[in-house]
Write a structure and sequence with these properties.
The structure is a homodimer. Chain A is of the alpha/beta class. Helices cover 34% and strands 13% of the residues of chain A. Chain A has a 7-stranded mixed sheet, sandwiched between helices. In chain A, strand 18, helix 20 (614-624) and strand 19 (631-635) form a beta-alpha-beta unit. Chain A is elongated, with a radius of gyration of 29 Å. Chain A starts with 10 loop residues before the first helix and ends with a strand. Chains A, B: It comes from Trebonia kvetii.
């Protein structure tokens, strides 16, 4: 039940009122929650007030509208301000605002995409800008839509290296559809920031990276408004507005005071009074499309519902209809708008024909991935590929040759690579990001946050394990499975041959969440038929007899060692089952439990540290059955490797065929046989 | 058997000869190894020749001498050049050089501290400079010795954000004891770098961060020599020398050619010929201390052993004794040299008295850590503390107040924080680095590499788990145990009460390798006596009876839930054992196996994702016993948390007392009892 009317005072006064409403609401919701970061929010209230009332183009009723601007609070702890903004634009009500930080509320301590207006979760500082850069690249190169990306950063987070990876990417990509607003309140969690209010220091850094910079008083409404217009109109470079502000602005008890970070104001009622009381202004945000609807009639900031009662005492101020100055529209460089990303969603990938490798030939899984990815690009126009300057090694170079317009070189900046992937999937694209398995660890925080963002990104790590050989441990992914398994909702796939890799590359395209494909460097035998289907959560029983005394569970390169070990064991009269557990997460628990019951003994073998890899996945699956477990022997990399040939490495680490055979024979020799023998259960098939 | 004599030509010619020797040796060792990065090495040969012959102060016979300069190859793939340099200075012989990249050789694909002259492992780009900054901070603030830190970077790695975290730290710390040499060869792995030879672009960026910059021709011996002198003499700022070079310099077949990265030269014999053949010059490097020994007699580059035969055909050139220009000594700002770090190694920590918390009171483990750390600083003058701008939260602020001279604010730059820790431990200091557990993921690659560096660093992560409460998932470390367990040689400790935390804080000080202490935010009951001793690898059996039907294994906050669950179970007539597995890695396998045998059923409960945490550690320990395993039920965080109170979070995630009791009761109800009952084994004691 909104009552809209014209404000009677000038624009500046009206925008100040909006800002004060935002501040009051920050104070109120933090007070009700008894936690939160109101002071870090209050410093940026004027910036956000001017942004939503005069510059943002966004239909809050249609958050997925393709022409909407994107607004990212990189300083996610300013969530009170974000939620106060949502109330100001009418997206949420006061009742929801007051459920801030409570059980089952969408208004979490830091914004997440549980709210439809939030593109990505923030709260780990220095990530919102890199992801915003990813969205801006999509806007410039893929969507070719005139939306603008607005990112609100804190000053403290500019210390993160990821900010400068983003600055380099944005500057070199001339992203003039990106405006970054830095709330330079000069105070961090524990005291002054490094540069306090020295916006010139930040400006010099951004300029060096090719940015257009503006330094303003972040509490001067007119300066802010002018800066936003100038920034948006500046062609050929991203803009950063460095706004000097005061933390806790407007409340003397906390304004620019240390010790007031991350806690409610000491006296909320007094603070609200000092801020002029509770307001109930609704801001009409210009819609993006069609363009004429963006023009807010001069002199209008329509109001929303009448003021309502709430838990914190309020001191309402009278609201006035005031004439606004005519709004300046942004000069957006003319581009041919492409179809929205969602319209380009492609045919189901099952129709796709992966590259074929002859059974019995030798091939590297990284080669298979590269070839498959290039072909996938033919049938899936939504697939985009990101490289960390190792495309020769990961083989994404093959995609680059076939589809240069959907290939993005991120250079040696893995955090920005992952952030770009996250940003592009916000726009409906299907990103694959590849580097050495080891170097995905550089972006682990981004991967962790991608899961909280409910992002769907595909990661590919090459040169996994000691089988990489001579390059030494710095280049060997030996913790990648552990790290990627411990990501919420992730999928972890470790193929052992080229046809399996090719198929799974296609499977990845339709997987939700964070998925990971692990490839290796050298060539291994092709053991599966071309075009054979592999499902997430599946496995392959490669050797099987009703008399099996032990099961060897392997993935990736160790599958081939396991097969050879089974031959060695057969020579000694021991019948060993071999399972290719290519899907490490989710692992094929049903098949594992069946084989545990049938063979009573399991040897797991992986080219990975012992912690958190295949062996632990197998143990966890067996434990989840609730029954007593079989004897399990875990073979893994237990000493620090150096340089050696790939096969020497496997031998040294005790994960080669001889070591597997020895471990299996010992297990058979020392343990009683299985308690029951039945046929192989469902969920697995006999491989070639 | 060296034969030294004066060179007859001018210095430039002599230094060029040294550079050509380095190039030839890069070609030779890569040819013998059939792998490696000779072209990335050859571009920097002139830089390194001038460095070792005229500027480095280093006693290769005493690599740990406290006055030695530090030389870090941040571009670790230029290992052929590093090893060629070692031969040139007489540190290794040709025989060892030719074992490059082979089994058991110290000369790995990328340098590691298996060589006594290597401070830290490199090979993950963008790490050598941040660590060098850490060493330079130690030189300036802790050691107060006039050594210089030299870092050789590639141009490609300047895209890494970690480089700019380091640039900011070094610039703001005015590290004029740091000289960075960037080998701008303009080619990456897959093609041109972003800026090719535009050294002005890099210079602008470094200048913006407060650096002194020099742009030179990296193949002009005299320009190089001058730049090194000017850089070292420049007061008040770190210097970066941006040297334009050509990859594969000196061999036309590969010089500045794409497709020649990371592989031996196509025709080594021809290349060596083109480079003027094999040489056998030994370079006398100036020693650091006492200063007079640094003065190389004018006109001398003494030679080493006579030329020897080797696998690759050689074309030796005649060597000449030449007069050198008088050497310019560096102007080193006068400082009071402190004792070398190793002399400050302190009394054994067992004499230390940790802070005491009254049993039965409530306390947070982060508070206990902060108080313990401050007291530890009193008795351990080698302890230094690094903060990621969250010292209020982690409680390292208490150390800052007590020992400001050994507290270093790294601001919100977790990669630089870990790199500083690694750099300081190179100098014998005992660093503790603390941030939120979640944000250690930001520096995971640095932690991974620290293990390869054989570095001893202590990491402390606060706000672990969903018990953090309202802040939401971005702030909750839920993958920290998985990530830290999967680090080679790491120790992972998860204390549950204040006295245990305080004791373990002291234990950390003497632990080798990467160690991790996980703390939580809220207050929990103090259950242990003040001063009670806890060992790495130990556990505490908190509830025990000979009739126990099930064991609950917990760590951290879940210990308290487990104790309450045992009470609930007792009410239902079920006798439950409770084990505090505070040492998650190494876990107390003996106690776990004993309890498995005795109770036959185990419930593990952790405030962490199910993958790679306490439950997996317990399963792995049980499996390692080789015997069939008991029924194990793993309770962990299995859905994405939002905001809620800490206790609501535990309940929602099914890791609270009621969930534990239910799981234990179900296990007892559905499973047969233990097969054998004996007394509790060694390795565990009954707690208070």
């Amino acid at each position: 039940m909104s009552t809209s009317f014209l404000l009677e005072q000038d624009v500046t006064r009206a925008l100040h009122e909006v800002a004060q409403q935002l501040r009051v609401d920050c104070v109120r919701c933090s007070a009700v929650a008894s936690s939160g970061h109101p002071t870090s929010s209050m410093s940026a209230a004027d910036l956000v007030a001017v942004l939503i009332a005069r510059h943002l183009r966004y239909d809050f009723a249609e958050p997925k509208a393709p022409g909407n601007d994107h607004l990212i609070f990189s300083k996610g702890h300013a969530s009170p301000l974000y939620y106060a903004m949502l109330r100001a634009v009418g997206a949420i009500g006061e009742d929801e605002l007051f459920r801030y930080r409570t059980l089952r509320s969408r208004l979490e301590g830091h914004p997440t995409p549980r709210l439809p207006w939030v593109d990505v979760a923030t709260g780990s500082l220095g990530q919102g800008l890199p992801i915003g850069v990813g969205i801006a690249i999509a806007g410039q190169n893929l969507d070719r839509l005139p939306y603008r990306v607005w990112v609100l950063c804190g000053d403290g987070e500019l210390a993160e290296g990821s900010i400068w990876e983003a600055a380099e990417q944005a500057g070199c990509s001339h992203l003039d559809n990106l405006t970054v607003i830095v709330d330079v309140n000069g105070l961090g969690q524990r005291g002054p920031t490094r540069h306090r209010w020295d916006t010139a220091a930040y400006a010099a850094r951004f300029r060096a990276f090719g940015w257009h910079t503006l330094e303003i008083d972040g509490h001067d409404i007119e300066e802010i408004d002018r800066a936003f217009s100038v920034a948006a109109a500046h062609p050929g470079a991203p803009s950063v507005i460095l706004a000097r502000t005061r933390k806790g602005r407007g409340v003397a008890a906390v304004e620019d005071r240390e010790g007031a970070h991350g806690k409610p104001l000491p006296d909320a009622a007094a603070a609200i009074s000092e801020l002029g009381g509770v307001r109930d202004i609704r801001v009409a945000v210009a819609h993006p499309d069609p363009l004429p609807s963006r023009v807010v009639p001069p002199g209008q900031i329509p109001l929303a519902r009448p003021m309502s009662a709430h838990a914190v005492p309020l001191h309402a101020v009278p609201l006035h209809a005031v004439p606004l100055h005519p709004m300046t529209l942004h000069a957006v460089p003319a581009r041919i708008p492409a179809q929205p990303a969602q319209d380009r969603r492609a045919r189901p990938v099952t129709r796709w024909r992966p590259p074929a490798f002859a059974s019995g030939s030798m091939a590297s899984t990284r080669d298979a991935f590269g070839q498959a990815l290039a072909l996938l690009g033919d049938v899936r126009p939504d697939v985009v590929v990101l490289d960390g300057e190792v495309s020769d090694s990961t083989r994404t170079g093959l995609f680059a040759q076939a589809h240069p317009e959907r290939y993005f070189e991120c250079y040696i900046a893995e955090q920005q690579m992952i952030a770009t992937a996250v940003g592009m999937q916000v726009r409906g694209w299907v990103p694959f990001a590849a580097t050495f398995a080891a170097f995905l660890s550089r972006a682990y925080d981004f991967i962790r946050m991608a899961a909280i963002s409910r992002a769907s990104i595909r990661l590919v790590g090459s040169h996994a394990g000691v089988w990489t050989g001579e390059d030494g441990p710095s280049q060997m992914g030996l913790e990648d499975i552990a790290a990627l398994r411990a990501v919420y909702g992730s999928t972890v796939l470790c193929p052992c041959d080229a046809n399996q890799t090719a198929w799974l590359t296609g499977v990845l395209a339709d997987l939700p969440g964070v998925s990971y494909l692990r490839t290796f460097r050298g060539e291994a035998p092709v053991i599966y038929r071309p075009g054979e289907r592999f499902d997430v959560g599946g496995s392959r029983v490669l050797r099987w007899s009703p008399d099996d005394q032990v099961t060897i569970v392997a993935a990736g390169i160790t599958v081939h060692e396991a097969l050879a070990a089974a031959d060695l064991l057969a020579d000694d009269g021991i019948s060993a089952r071999v399972i290719d557990a290519y899907s490490v997460k989710p692992v094929d628990a049903a098949t594992l439990r069946t084989t545990a019951r049938e063979t009573g003994r399991i040897v797991t073998v992986e080219d990975h540290w012992p912690e958190g890899g295949l062996g632990d996945a197998v143990l966890a699956a067996l434990a989840a059955g609730g029954a007593p477990m079989p004897a399990v022997r875990k073979l893994a990399v237990r000493t620090m490797p150096g340089s050696a040939t790939p096969d020497e490495q496997l031998q040294l680490m005790g994960i080669d065929m001889a070591s597997i055979a020895t471990a299996a024979a010992e297990l058979v020799g020392t343990e009683a046989g299985p308690s029951a023998r039945t046929a192989v259960g469902s969920g697995a098939s006999i491989g070639s």
